[in-house]
Amino acid sequence: VDVLLQSGRREEAESLAESTVKALRRRGDWSKMLSWTEALGEDALRRRPILREAQVRALLNARRQEELEDLVHEMLASGEVGELIESAPDVAAWAVWALHGSGEWAKLVPLLPPRGRSRVAEVMRYMLVSSCAREPPEDPAESALGRTHPLHVVLQEALYFQGRLRAASLLADVAAAAAGPVTAAVAQVHKVNVLRARGETAAARRVLETVPASIRSSRFIEFWLHAEAELCLEEGSGERALELIRSAREVSARHGWRVGDTAIFGAVEGRMLVRLGSAEAAVPILTSVRAWCAERGLASFREWAEAWLGAAMLVLDRPADEARSLLAQTV
């Protein structure tokens, strides 16, 4: 591709780049993908959805969130996302998903391709709806738990957040047997979470330690930090648990993944503080999480914050009506 571009044979370079995208994605060569899409230019990317998808997913995996969000907002404003919904709905779905770090999930659902048009969009819809809609999404069919999916780990996460531990565990097993090596490894993060939630802490620790350190330290590291934080709490290492969950928040903030820092891991830090006897320190954190989530319609994470804020009020012997109001809303 580079040689063709240097010699001015742009159309051949575009075609070759299209045919090479999958190989680059398998080996995680995001920098090469981005150097090509930048050199090929906007006209080529708009004409060739495969290359646009390559650019969006490379920016997402390279954690260049601000640049990615600017790109997608431009695509929305120009009508490109609407065009892609008709011509390449999976690409449109990836563009919409690129905005999920903002936490504005309720606003993203209407932007997805219609039902039945994109497997990518269906996983995204399940995650978004389960977190922000008044009614839960339809349960995945039993057959869906026996195969891999686009955004496989996101589907696992949505199931785990709902307490559907068996389903999340089955998807981890499917990934281990049938997915690529990276997805197979990353999918184990929720295997760790499931085993720990079931009280099988020793088994959870064994699974965590079988995942290569190179994966845990380079691929969405905050999820590994969160999984180990929860495990450390159950193992009795409270200070280490707090250190890890705060690191997860810091990593998320640094990469512009606001929903991780401010909602998901913020709520977890508040819960940990309540459990560790530091309810006073938990109150401002959980109050902030609750307000941020309420502003964005993130009902599930708001409920987490309200439940543990109510618990903190009880521990601190605040007026019973305060705790009752919070817990009643959660229920």
Structure description:
The chain has 331 residues and is mostly helical. Helix content is 76%, strand content 0%. The protein has 22 helices and no strands. The protein has helices spanning 2-6, 10-26, 30-40, 42-47, 49-61, 65-78, 80-87, 89-97, 105-108, 119-132, 152-161, 165-178, 181-186, 188-197, 201-210, 213-216, 221-235, 238-254, 258-275, 279-296, 299-315, 320-330. Helix 2 runs antiparallel to helix 3.
Throw out a few tags for this protein.
single chain; 331 residues; mainly alpha; 22 helices; 0% strand
Span of the ends, CA to CA: 57 Å
Quaternary form: single chain
Cα shape:
globular
Rg of Cα set: 21 Å
Q: In this structure, how is the largest beta sheet organized? A: none
State the helix count.
Answer: 22
Strand content: under 5%
Structural class estimated from helices and strands: mainly alpha
- Indicate the mean pLDDT: 92
Summarize the structure.
The protein has about 325 residues and is mostly helical.
What secondary-structure arrangement, pairings included, does this model have?
Elements: H1 2-6, H2 10-26, H3 30-40, H4 42-47, H5 49-61, H6 65-78, H7 80-87, H8 89-97, H9 105-108, H10 119-132, H11 152-161, H12 165-178, H13 181-186, H14 188-197, H15 201-210, H16 213-216, H17 221-235, H18 238-254, H19 258-275, H20 279-296, H21 299-315, H22 320-330
